[in-house]
Amino acid sequence: EGLSLKAEQLVPGGAKEIVLRWTLAGHDGDMSVNENEFYDAHWLGALSIEGGTPAWLATVQLEQSYGVDLLLDDGEAEAELPHSENFGTKTVKSVSVEWRDGGLVVTQSGKDGASAPTGTFKLGAYPRLCGETWR
């Protein structure tokens, strides 16, 4: 899915901000137990360029998913191998974002919890400004 950029007016009457959306995904196979760990994360960022100086306003992890499934499905071998305690699981945490009155409202939308801090925040005051991990 890559990266998308869009100019949006987040503060009524103000300059437009750059709204970024991107996805990170990966997996890790463990042949000793025939398991594949997979993850992906969908992000939303807001960047001000007012006055010619870029400034991060918010970075929200919209969704994070993690799971463990079979690496190779060859029938017999799968039944003989021990599996990790996370085998067969998939966890999806997510939030929704609404731009409101020059700020953002972040609410939990995932069945397994929130993927980012929730609440009502002014732009530039969100707990995560640039990509650090939140759990």
3D structure, described in words:
With 135 residues, the chain is mainly beta. It has one domain (3-122). It is built from 1 helix and 7 strands. It has a 7-stranded antiparallel sheet, with no helix packed on it. It is elongated, with a radius of gyration of 19 Å.
What keyword list fits this structure?
135 residues; elongated; 7 strands; 1 helix
* Overall 3D shape: elongated
- The helix fraction, in percent, is under 10%
Overall mean pLDDT stands at 84
* Total count of helical runs of at least 4 residues: 1
Q: Count of DSSP E strands?
A: 7
Which regions contain 5 or more consecutive residues with pLDDT less than 50?
A: none
Cα gyration radius (Å): 19 Å
How large a portion of the residues is in β-strands, by DSSP E?
over 45%
Assign the structural class, choosing from mainly alpha, mainly beta, alpha/beta, alpha+beta, or little secondary structure: mainly beta
Could you spell the SSE succession in H and E letters?
EEEEHEEE
Largest sheet: 7 strands, antiparallel
> What's the structural domain tally?
1
Major sheet strand order: 1-2-3-4-5-6-7
Distance between the termini: 24 Å
